[in-house]
Amino acid sequence: MSELPLDQVRTLLAVVDEGTFDAAAAVLHVTPSAVSQRVKALEQRTGRVLLLRTKPVRPTESGQVLVRLARQVGLLERDAHAELGLSGTGRATRLPVAVNADSLASWFLPVLSRVPAEPPVCFELRREDEGHTAALLREGTVMAAVTSSPEPVPGCSVRHLGRMRYLPVAHPEFAARHLAGPLEDVLPEAPVVVFDRLDDIQDGFVRRITGGRRGASADRHWIPTSEGYADAVAAGLGWGMVPEAQAVPLLRAGRVTRFAP
After folding, report:
1. pLDDT digits 0-9 by tens, 96-140
2. Are residues 117 and 148 in the same domain?
3. Which residues, 6 or more positions from 104, have their beta carbon under 8 angstroms from its beta carbon?
4. Neighbour count for residue 188 (Cβ, 10 Å)
5. CA–CA distances in Å: residue 157 to residues 62, 64, 91, 127
6. Which of 131, 76, 61 is nearest to 103 (CA)?
7. pTM above 0.85, yes or no
8. Among residues 261, 109, 103, 127, which one has the least CA distance to residue 198?
9. Are 61 and 107 members of one domain?
10. Residue 119's domain spans which residues?
């Protein structure tokens, strides 16, 4: 395959980021026809369909490879401008990052505050379950991801960030009412608080307790915010696996009790 024209690759990225050819044309200050011609030329050059013409448009598997390339080239250009002392475009680089809600509510934002002010960067955070953030990286939707997967996405590297511990806790009155008795018997029947339909932490914990025989109760409350989740458990709606950083203050205040190791 011949060399990939960077203007065509950047155009593909603009279409994916903006969602339509018209919106990409406005960002690139060209006509929608010019955007369409660049994308078609890139598809002809690669011999592959790169975009699904839906609303919004979506990259194909081949398109995801080139979108990821375009993002990486943009970051390399920004770094080169900084090292050479060039002013660049004068606009901040947009850096999309996928991060799970519990990290976002605890340690992640203080880390972002430590990023150097020069060259300027604007973060676009995409909240996603830690088991699925790598998929956004694979699609080229984001440039970095906090993930539970140790396997690197092609073109990326993996760094160990640490561990996030989750504690099984419940309101003391809830525990006395629903969790009195052998855990393998009572826990699968007790109402549970779950973050969203991708959240498998509670079911996984119950499967460990029951030797894989059962998961968490079907009586579950869906609370899709990290702070709201901890508050729901502390309010006695159900038991839940709460991040240690959020659980410890609740334990000290007597608002929840830890009912299992």
Report:
1. 899 999 999 989 999 998 988 877 888 999 999 888 888 888 877
2. yes
3. 125, 127, 226
4. 19
5. 20, 17, 27, 21
6. 131
7. no
8. 127
9. no
10. 91-163
